[in-house]
Amino acid sequence: MVSLTLQGITRKFGDVTAVDDVSLEIARGELFFLLGPSGCGKTTLLRLIAGFYAPDAGSILFDGQEVTRRPPHRRNTGMVFQNYALWPHMTVRENVAYGLVLRKVPPSEQNDRVAEALRMVRMERYGERSPNQLSGGQQQRVALARALVIRPDVVLLDEPLSNLDARLRLEMRDEIRRIHDETATTMIYVTHDQKEALSMADRVAVMDTGAVAQTGEPRSIYDRPANAFVADFIGETNFVAGRLTRLDMPLAVETPVGILHSTIEPAEDLSPGDEVVCSIRPEAIRVSRPDPTGGEEENVLSGVVRQTVYLGDHEQYSVQLDDGTLVKLVDHRPGQRLAGPGAPIRLSCDPSRVVVIGKPG
Ligand code: ATP
Predict the structure, then answer these.
(1) Which of 28, 117, 228, 359 could form a cystine bridge with 149, CB 3.0-4.6 A?
(2) Measured in angstroms, how far is the CA atom of residue 289 from the centroid of ligand 1?
(3) Stretch 255-269: mean pLDDT, rounded?
C-alpha cells in the first residue's frame, strides 16, 4: 500500500475542464471516497491516478515518488469497474489469475494467491464457474479478487455497486469495508451515492464541477458542510437566508423569521453584514415546547404545518415559516403525531446544529 499525493491536477477535454486544480493527500491504508454528482470529474480523476490519462498540469506521487508520466502497467494499481469487466470466456479462477500470468508469477504461487484472493471475497467454491453463471454481486466479488490478487499498492473502484440491486448494494458495502480492513490496502472509491460514502469512507472528497469542494471525515462533512453545495448535496438540509450581524461566538444571523444563533465556526471568510444562509438539517429541528422554568428558548421559528408523511420509523413534516420559507423536519418517534396540516407550530434548533455559510451564487 502507498500514500498518494495529488498536486494541482488539471485535465481538460476540449473546452471542458473535467478536473480543475485538484490537490489531495490520501494516507496509506485509507478508504478514500471521491463523491459528487454526475459529470463532476470523479472518474477522470480516478483514471488520472491509474495512468489511463495524463494530466495537463500537476503531479501525482505514490509514497512521495513522482508517477505522473508512468504508464498504467507500471503503477501497480488494481481497478474495479461498475460493469465488473470480467472475461466471459475464462473461468472465475482464470479471470483472477490473469494479472499474475501477465506478471509472470510462477504457476504454483499463482494457485496459492488465487485461492487466497477468492477466500478473501468468499468465492472459493466458484473457481471453475464461468462469469455468466454468477449473480451480479458474485461477479463484483470476483472483480475485487482480480484487483486484489496482484497485491496492488492502491485499489481504484469506479462506482462498483451501481449495477446491483438495493439489498445487494447494502451487503456489498459491508463486504468491501471488511475486505479493506483485512487487507489494509489504500483504496480510492468513486461514487455519486452519498449514503455509500457516508457509511463506508474513512474520508471523503466532495467534488463540484472538477474541483474539490470539501475534504473530511463523513461526520464533519455532514455536520459542518463548508459551503452551500456540500450542504445541499450531502443529505437533506434547510436553508434559511439572512444577514450576518455578529461574527463573535455565538454568531448571529438576522433572518425574516427572527435571529438565529450558531456556535459553529464558519469555514468561509465571512464579515458582518454579509448575506448568508443558515443550513439546518431536518433532524436538528425540534418542535418547541414552552420551557416549564420560564426560560427563553433560542432559535425559535414559527410557522404552519403544510404536510406530514408517516414512514413507520419516522415522520416527516413540512412547515411553512412566517415569511413563506418551507422547512422540513423529522420526528423519529412518530407514535404520536406532533401536529397535522394547517396547525400552527413553533420550532427550535440548537445553535450547535446551525451552520452559517456564504450565500450561494
Ligand atoms: P459520472 O458519475 O456521470 O461518471 P463523473 O463525475 O465521473 O461523472 P467524468 O466522467 O470524470 O465525471 O466527466 C467529467 C467531465 O468531463 C464531464 O463533463 C464529461 O462530459 C467530460 N469528459 C469525460 N471524459 C471525456 C472524454 N473522453 N472526452 C470528452 N469529454 C469528457
Answers:
(1) 117
(2) 50
(3) 93
